[in-house]
Amino acid sequence: MAMDVRTGKITDCNEQAEKLLGRTRNEIIGMNHLNIYPAACRAEFRKQFAKLIRSGIKIMKFQIELQRKDGSLIPVDATGNLIRVEGRPVIQGIFRTLTPGKMLNINYIRGTAKKRRPKTKAIPIT
Q1: What pLDDT, in 10s, does the model give residues 38-83?
Q2: Separation between Cα atoms, residue 68 and residue 6, nearest integer Å
Q3: Rounded Cα gap, residues 116 and 110, in angstroms
Q4: How far apart are CA 64 and CA 11, in angstroms?
Q5: pLDDT of 2-22, one tens digit each?
Q6: What's the mean pLDDT in 18-35?
Q7: Which residue pairs, CB below 8 angstroms and at least 24 apart, start in 79-82?
Q8: What string of H, E and C letters represents the secondary structure of the chain?
């Protein structure tokens, strides 16, 4: 999907986005991109996208659940790329469905491509 940086509206999507969101292309295009996320996550995404735009970071990776038209949630691995199309800044969103075995940190947003390290117990040396 492509999202206009100035308006927050989705300007383009492919057939896979239609399947993923359970919506037609006509329903998706023109929709504010925040409406594809569960209501509880929208404020955080608003902040994260503003950070992406202000900082000029070229890429942001995260895992989250998207909200389908029927209200069901689908976990995805997502990448947001800040690009220019015809001179205008656009965020290109790439979403890949996660299987239960691949879900790492749903609702945990990473501002960089680095993975969070798992906590480990200290082992005493004897």
Answers
A1: 999 899 888 877 877 787 777 888 888 899 999 999 999 888 888 8
A2: 24
A3: 8
A4: 21
A5: 999 889 999 999 999 999 999
A6: 96
A7: 80/49, 80/52, 82/5, 82/52, 82/53, 82/56, 82/57, 82/58
A8: CEEECCCCEEEECCHHHHHHHCCCHHHHCCCEHHHHCCHHHHHHHHHHHHHHHHHCCCEEEEEEEEECCCCCEEEEEEEEEEEEECCEEEEEEEEEECCHHHCCCCCCEECCCCCCCCCCCCCCCC
